[in-house]
UniProtKB/TrEMBL annotation:
Record PANTHER family: MEMBRANE-ASSOCIATED SALT-INDUCIBLE PROTEIN-LIKE, PENTACOTRIPEPTIDE-REPEAT REGION OF PRORP DOMAIN-CONTAINING PROTEIN
PPR repeat placement: 172-206, 207-237, 241-275, 276-310, 311-345, 346-380, 381-415, 416-450
Keyword Repeat: yes
Pfam families: PPR, PPR_2
Name of the protein this chain belongs to: Pentatricopeptide repeat-containing protein
InterPro entries to which the protein is assigned, alphabetical: PPR-containing_protein, PPR_rpt, TPR-like_helical_dom_sf
Keyword Ligase among record annotations: no
Ranges of biased composition (kind: Basic residues): 617-626
Family: Belongs to the PPR family. P subfamily.
Alphabetical UniProt keywords: Repeat
Biased composition (Basic and acidic residues): 607-616
Gene3D superfamilies membership: Tetratricopeptide repeat domain (1.25.40.10)
Record region (Disordered): 47-67, 607-637
Amino acid sequence: MLKLSSKFTSLLTKRRHFSFSSEPNTGNVQSTDLRNQFNSKLVCLETKQQDDNDNDNNNTQTRHGRDEFTSDVEKIFRILKKFHSRVPKLELALLHSGVVLRPGLSERVINRCGDAGNLGYKYYTWVSKQPNYSHSYDVYKALIKSLSKMRQFGAVWALIEEMRKQKPELISPELFVVLMRRFASARMVKKAIEVLDEMPKYGCEPDEYAFGCLLDALCKNGSAKEAAKLFEDMRVKFEPSLKHFTSLLYGWCKEGKLMEAKHVLVQMKEAGFEPDIVVYNNLLSGYAQAGKMNDAFELLKEMRMKGCEPNANSYTVLIQGLCRLEKMEEAMRVFVEMERRECEADVVTYTTLISGFCKWGKIDRGYEILDSMIQRGCMPNQLTYLHIMLEHEKKEELEECVELIEKMRKIGCVPDLSIYNVVIRLACKLGEVKEAVDVWNEMEASGFSAGIDSFVVMIHGFLGQGCLVEACEYFKEMVGRGLLSAPQYGLLKELLNSLLRAEKLELAKDVWSGILTKGCELNVYAWTIWIHSLFSKKYVKEACSYCLDMMDADVMPQPDTFAKLMRGLKKLYNRQLAAEITEKVRKMAAERQITFKMYKRRGERDLKEKVKEKKDGRKRRARRRQWGGSRGNDKIL
């Protein structure tokens, strides 16, 4: 392990660090867009073009304003990270930072905070108080994007309400489109549709653009059925367009419902629209995703017959479908056919082939494709290298990952957060925790703001190596940056259980109090995780105390939580505490028009079912071990 560590360190410190970028954010945006395109079966709808244009505009501004803004943005970001939990010191540090407030600075600071919407909001709050300063449209839009990405929708609506009162002229449909897309990605369909209904309240009449974006967002996020119903309901108000039909067809294909997709195609033709290359590519993607490659090839022939010549995207979809079925030689034949028809392969096509070879353990062929694309002048991107690195990660080849990053840097391909996460995860897995921290520090020094994925990787790595104190520090930093939301409750549960198993009760309490003091909006599931973790480790009184705090925060415990605590207190003969909890639960049940008797009965039932499930699980595992042992003995005999 020492040998690996020394070589890793030497590679890491070559030129002091392995990833230096003059434009880190630009590289990150590019790779994210390509990864989204790859994950969505390589089919881009025309309605996505607006998002890409926004990204291009942001990147252009970053490039032109780099010399003027970068040092100030980094200085402010360092201050925000250092003092985010101490508001008076934060405001004092920002005031004496020497940074001159000017147009274009604030939106860059908020964008620099990345997923850490809490940091961006604290800067926004401070800068709002400064004399002779006024927020621009770009500042509001950047903050709305950041907060809605972290699902802090209450803060977003409050911000839009503030705009309505102070700067109504800055409210535009684009702000509501951002909110629709975030609600849709969170699968909050009703909320996304409500945004369309709320727009007139803020002086924005819903237009065809906003409706098309809502339809597109729902279809891209697995809500094609709801999108189809909305489309039918709104046909009178918004005239159907080719983009609307394309979005619906894409949504059904993505969900694998080809019959519904064909029905949309019929509706499209009846409305007087002829399928274009995007529509055909979506259908190709649907067939490929369902493994119906014969139908996909027939559709390709039909395209040619109707004069719609397949493009690089068409062939790439076929290649991806074949790669998924481990038909790599057939995929290569499609690639050769593509070249024979003088259809130039792009970076996504090459990345698809490399991904396929790496997925099926043929990493050498992947490297051959990589060398070939570079020789032909097609530069690989971060996603191309990511697939190779993931294969190296499977084989626990840390040195190869670092060397690959060196190769990326040589051709000007800047590592992004996904690349860093792979190296950090593998370093932690191999016990190279110090090196993982070095990579983390390099990542942030290179201009990247660690997102939730990076924190999850790092915290899991520390927990896996038993470094509980370090895991807590990174978790508290994640909370401080405003990155804790419902999807990360699994990580919270793992951390708390690890601390309590190691009998570090005070450290676990410190983590929980840190969450509360940072103003995180905790729902009943978060409280349940903490209370059940305490109870399972025999900390019954502490669990009851936090249950009372939970009810003081106007969060009613789940029925099984109440039943579990009552059983624990009965064993401790603590009638006073049991009576106090029961009385509070009675009041909360009455306020919510729930009968206490039914609540209590449901809790007992749920608890019995969970105990039964646990026992059944143990029996099944015991039987598997027994059968496995019998088979092993038979083999020995």
